Amino acid sequence: MAFQGELTLTLGVWTLISTTNCTFQVRSGGVEIIGTVDAVPSPTDDGLIYMAGQGEGADVNTLSRFPGVGTANRIYAKAVQNETKIFVSSSA
Protein backbone atom coordinates (compact mmCIF):
# COMPACT_ATOMS: atom_id res chain seq x y z
CA MET A 1 0.00 0.00 0.00
CA ALA A 2 1.33 3.42 -0.92
CA PHE A 3 2.39 5.73 1.92
CA GLN A 4 3.56 9.30 2.20
CA GLY A 5 4.05 10.98 5.54
CA GLU A 6 6.09 11.38 8.68
CA LEU A 7 6.94 8.56 11.07
CA THR A 8 8.26 8.80 14.61
CA LEU A 9 10.85 6.10 15.20
CA THR A 10 11.60 4.41 18.52
CA LEU A 11 15.16 4.34 19.80
CA GLY A 12 16.77 1.00 18.91
CA VAL A 13 13.64 -0.58 17.35
CA TRP A 14 13.60 -1.44 13.64
CA THR A 15 10.49 -0.18 11.81
CA LEU A 16 9.54 -1.26 8.29
CA ILE A 17 9.38 1.87 6.12
CA SER A 18 9.01 0.35 2.65
CA THR A 19 8.85 -2.81 0.57
CA THR A 20 9.94 -0.92 -2.57
CA ASN A 21 12.44 1.79 -3.36
CA CYS A 22 11.45 4.92 -1.50
CA THR A 23 12.26 8.54 -0.87
CA PHE A 24 13.07 9.50 2.71
CA GLN A 25 14.46 12.40 4.68
CA VAL A 26 15.37 12.51 8.36
CA ARG A 27 13.46 15.40 9.91
CA SER A 28 15.00 15.27 13.39
CA GLY A 29 17.55 13.17 15.24
CA GLY A 30 19.39 10.36 13.50
CA VAL A 31 18.45 7.01 11.99
CA GLU A 32 20.00 3.81 10.76
CA ILE A 33 18.61 2.39 7.51
CA ILE A 34 19.01 -1.27 6.52
CA GLY A 35 17.75 -3.47 3.70
CA THR A 36 16.69 -7.10 4.24
CA VAL A 37 15.18 -10.04 2.41
CA ASP A 38 11.84 -10.90 4.06
CA ALA A 39 13.21 -10.60 7.60
CA VAL A 40 13.15 -8.13 10.47
CA PRO A 41 16.72 -7.11 11.35
CA SER A 42 18.20 -8.12 14.67
CA PRO A 43 18.28 -5.32 17.27
CA THR A 44 22.09 -5.46 17.09
CA ASP A 45 22.30 -5.17 13.27
CA ASP A 46 23.97 -2.03 12.00
CA GLY A 47 22.72 0.08 9.09
CA LEU A 48 23.67 3.20 7.19
CA ILE A 49 23.47 6.29 9.39
CA TYR A 50 21.58 9.39 8.27
CA MET A 51 21.26 12.55 10.36
CA ALA A 52 18.66 15.36 10.29
CA GLY A 53 18.37 16.82 6.80
CA GLN A 54 19.88 13.77 5.11
CA GLY A 55 18.06 11.15 3.06
CA GLU A 56 17.67 9.62 -0.38
CA GLY A 57 15.61 10.88 -3.31
CA ALA A 58 13.49 9.08 -5.87
CA ASP A 59 16.47 8.90 -8.24
CA VAL A 60 18.28 6.47 -5.90
CA ASN A 61 17.62 2.72 -5.97
CA THR A 62 17.40 2.46 -2.19
CA LEU A 63 17.12 -1.35 -2.14
CA SER A 64 20.38 -1.72 -4.11
CA ARG A 65 22.33 0.02 -1.29
CA PHE A 66 22.40 -3.35 0.53
CA PRO A 67 24.09 -5.87 -1.83
CA GLY A 68 25.35 -7.97 1.08
CA VAL A 69 21.90 -9.48 1.64
CA GLY A 70 21.23 -10.39 -1.98
CA THR A 71 18.13 -8.79 -3.46
CA ALA A 72 16.73 -6.70 -0.62
CA ASN A 73 12.95 -6.31 -0.63
CA ARG A 74 12.39 -4.47 2.65
CA ILE A 75 13.78 -1.24 4.07
CA TYR A 76 13.83 -0.72 7.83
CA ALA A 77 14.79 2.29 9.95
CA LYS A 78 15.55 2.70 13.64
CA ALA A 79 16.22 5.77 15.72
CA VAL A 80 19.72 6.32 17.05
CA GLN A 81 18.55 9.33 19.07
CA ASN A 82 15.31 9.93 20.97
CA GLU A 83 12.31 11.49 19.21
CA THR A 84 13.55 10.83 15.70
CA LYS A 85 11.21 11.74 12.86
CA ILE A 86 11.54 10.61 9.25
CA PHE A 87 9.51 11.53 6.17
CA VAL A 88 8.86 8.61 3.81
CA SER A 89 7.26 8.44 0.37
CA SER A 90 6.79 4.94 -1.02
CA SER A 91 4.59 3.28 -3.62
CA ALA A 92 4.23 0.17 -1.41
Q: How would you sum up this structure, described in words?
A:
The chain has 92 residues and is mainly β. The protein has one domain (3-90): Jelly Rolls (Sandwich), CATH 2.60.120. It contains no helices and eight strands. It has strands at residues 3-9, 15-18, 22-28, 30-36, 48-51, 55-56, 74-79, 84-90. The termini are close together. The model has no long low-confidence stretch (mean pLDDT 92).
Distance between the termini: 4 Å
Report the oligomer.
Answer: single chain
Q: Quote the beta fraction.
A: over 45%
CATH topology: Jelly Rolls
Neighbour order of strands in the largest sheet: 1-8-3-6
* Largest pleated sheet: 4 strands, antiparallel
What class would the helix/strand composition place it in? mainly beta
Number of E strands: 8
Kindly summarize this structure in a few lines:
With 92 residues, the protein is an all-beta fold. Helix content is 0%, strand content 48%.
Please name the defining characteristics of this protein.
92 residues; mainly beta; Jelly Rolls; four-stranded antiparallel beta sheet
